[in-house]
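cron nightly-structures :: item 1 of 1
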Amino acid sequence: MQRLLGLIEKYISLDSIPKMSFIDFIEILIIAFLLYELMIWIRDTRAWSLMRGLIVIILFVLLAYVMQMTTILWLVQHIFDIAIMAFVVAFQPELRKALDRLGRKNFISALFQFRPGSAVDERFSDRTVSEIIKASYEMSRVRTGALIVVAQQDSLTEFVRTGIELDSLVSSQLLINIFEHNTPLHDGAVIIRGNRIISATCYLPLSDNMALSKELGTRHRAGVGISEVTDSLTVIVSEETGRVSVAIGGRLHSNVDSEFLRQQLEIVQNKTVEDRKLLLWKGRAKQ
């Protein structure tokens, strides 16, 4: 035990630890953040399965280096430049999504938020939340297919232009009427910004996520697709089963209840923490 402690003191001592400045701490935080984002990106994409193949290749190259296989090392050295280009081409969709996710982060507001947890503006009212939920489960009951996109910060102008502009106040009756069978506006998606329906019959990008169930149709893939390229929330009502699903951040939550949908809409609503605590206190007082 003393011998082990002696070795540790020999190679690790307080004198050997370099002094760190404020810039060094900032640099460590930046590197840690970038590594964290890289790990999240690898976990959420098909890069994880391809990464295992890359690890096998790296181990093979290390073996060739240890055994001095000069021919293989020469080939690896000259193929390295081409491999970088092949990596960029193979992971082009994932790299684009990772850069898009990085660009959405509001670092300034996170660093200089004088009232932590409070929101600047409420995106839409509680009435809009209730109307969306009411319409979704009314259509679910009669198995009317629907696709409702609720915008956050990202601009959805390119998708709004594919539909018919409405600029109407959100109401459950209007949403139900839009998605009614054999009506001019029932095909496509409805886009909501704030308390208004700004467009209907909009075309959305389809997700190419192979992890999605093959039983899901075009409506669900479109709902997931728009959530992959924007920060919007999409409510999907299945015409075949009547189930209500929610797509946000590229993930699909299937067969959700009204309480889960309300929670997700309230997150998107961007209400202040003080307002949520007040509502919770009022609810407990009534009970």
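cron nightly-structures :: done
The first strand starts at residue 146 and ends at 150.
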